Amino acid sequence: MNEPFRKFSGRMAAIVGSANAFLLALSVVVVWIITGPIFDFSNTWQLFINTGTTIVTFLMVFIIQNTQNRDTKSIRLQLDELISTAKGASDLYLDLDEMSDDELERLRQQFKQAHERVERHHKARKQQQQKS
Question: How many CB atoms lie within 10 A of CB 34?
Answer without folding.
Answer: 9
